[in-house]
Amino acid sequence: MSLYIEDIAQKLDDDSVGTVATDIFVGWQTEDMPEAVIVVLESTGLSPDRYLPTARPGFQIYIRNKSYAAGAAKAQAVRNSLHQTLPGTLVTSGNFFYYIFALQEPIYIGRDEQERHEWTINFVSQVRIPS
């Protein structure tokens, strides 16, 4: 089930928002990563459905860029790629997503120690649990 964040990273790659393992990373971030980076992190979701075999995982996207304008544009591209994704199977692990919704617009969280601009966006999704 945790492979869903790999599906999200691959969708961003497929939508030409970035490239997995070049500027899109899954599950971790370090200071020595590229200046411009997108990180897909697991996050708190919603309670599982009581009657259907689904999970409602949440995830957070972290965006960092030296340029404010480029980072803000990348954050908006991430939001546009993922928000209101409706039923379909994403490529990497074959998880079937019923939906993906942004919980808020991209939010600027300031600068890191190296003066790079940072944004986050939180999402929730509903995924079929494999039988």
Distance between the amino and carboxyl termini: 11 Å
Major sheet description: 7 strands, mixed
Number of strands: 7
Overall number of structural domains: 1
CATH architecture: 2-Layer Sandwich
* Shape call: elongated
Helix-strand sequence: HEEEHEEEE
Tell me the radius of gyration. Answer: 15 Å
Q: Which residue ranges are poorly predicted, with pLDDT under 50 across at least 5 consecutive positions?
A: none
Highest CATH level, the class: Alpha Beta
Q: State the CATH topology.
A: STM4215-like
Rounded mean pLDDT score: 90
Roughly what fraction of the amino acids lie in strands?
Answer: 35-45%
**Which structural class fits the helix and strand makeup?**
alpha+beta
Tell me the number of helical segments per DSSP (H or I, 4 or more residues long). Answer: 2
- Helix proportion range: 10-25%
What is shown here, in short?
This protein has 131 residues and is an alpha+beta fold. It is 20% helix and 39% strand.
How do the helices and strands line up, and which of them pair or pack?
Elements: H1 4-14, E1 24-26, E2 37-46, E3 54-65, H2 68-82, E4 88-89, E5 96-102, E6 107-111, E7 117-128
Parallel strand pairs: 1-2
Antiparallel strand pairs: 2-3, 3-7, 4-5, 5-7, 6-7
Describe the structure in your own words:
With 131 residues, the chain is an alpha+beta fold. The chain has helices at 4-14, 68-82, and strands at 24-26, 37-46, 54-65, 88-89, 96-102, 107-111, 117-128. The protein has a single domain (4-128), classed as STM4215-like, CATH 3.30.2000.30. Helices cover 20% and strands 39% of the residues. Strands 1, 2, 3, 4, 5, 6 and 7 form a seven-stranded mixed sheet that branches. The longest helix has 15 residues, at 68-82.
